């Protein structure tokens, strides 16, 4: 193969294989050789696309979370045209995603946090970029509610999406041996959204249908 030739494996296949191995074993336990062997290629074929294992890891996470963000926006589009209902639908999708990948997410989050500490001095902060990928769809709905006078803006411009996801993760992480993940996801999402909604409701927020003054 010449220096400008493409390796006999596509970038999509490398990412798919790396994602499967990272989710199963964790970032630290998987080597470039492991990924190359699973793809049936040499290490050089992987380095053609990615300069390092860390670069491959961030691209895997970026694509994985982009798919989740698409699912969140699809849930919003399918929900009634009410911000609280849209937020509940999105939060349930996110909660189901967390519960279905709990062990893998904890392992990858630990690896991400370790990388974050090592790269804080760099201009490029992929950790924060990935966090925004998930929080942005929620923040879009919440900021519309703020602009429409339904919710209050938190002090110091703290993101409402961070408050919501913090509430959700708090209840999800406290549950062990979940027998019905879908039911838990629905209940946890409803609780988190209602808690945020009541806590941040604007004093001038319009009354809900059927609500008496």
Can you characterise this structure?
This protein has helices at residues 11-25, 32-39, 43-49, 53-78, 83-100, 102-119, 126-147, 160-173, 181-200. By secondary structure, it is an all-alpha fold. It has two domains: 10-51, Orthogonal Bundle (Arc Repressor Mutant, subunit A); 54-200, Tetracycline Repressor, domain 2, CATH 1.10.357.10. The radius of gyration is 21 Å and the shape is elongated. The N and C termini lie far apart (76 Å). Residues 1-6 have low confidence and may be disordered.
What is the compact description of this entry?
The protein is mainly α and 213 residues long. Helices cover 69% and strands 0% of the residues.
Topology summary:
Elements: H1 11-25, H2 32-39, H3 43-49, H4 53-78, H5 83-100, H6 102-119, H7 126-147, H8 160-173, H9 181-200
Helix pairs in contact: 1-2, 1-4, 1-6, 4-5, 4-7, 5-7, 5-8, 5-9, 7-8, 8-9
Number of helices: 9
Number of strands: 0
Strand residue percentage: under 5%
Quaternary state reads single chain
Principal-axes geometry comes out as elongated
Structural class, by secondary structure, is: mainly alpha
CATH class of the largest domain: Mainly Alpha
**CATH fold group of the largest domain:** Tetracycline Repressor, domain 2
For the biggest sheet, the summary is: none
Whole-number total of structural domains: 2
- CATH architectural group of the largest domain: Orthogonal Bundle
Mean pLDDT across all residues, rounded?
Answer: 83
Level of helix content?
A: 55-70%
Salient structural properties:
single chain, 213 residues, mainly alpha, Arc Repressor Mutant, subunit A, Tetracycline Repressor, domain 2, 2 domains, 9 helices, 69% helix, 0% strand, elongated, disordered N terminus
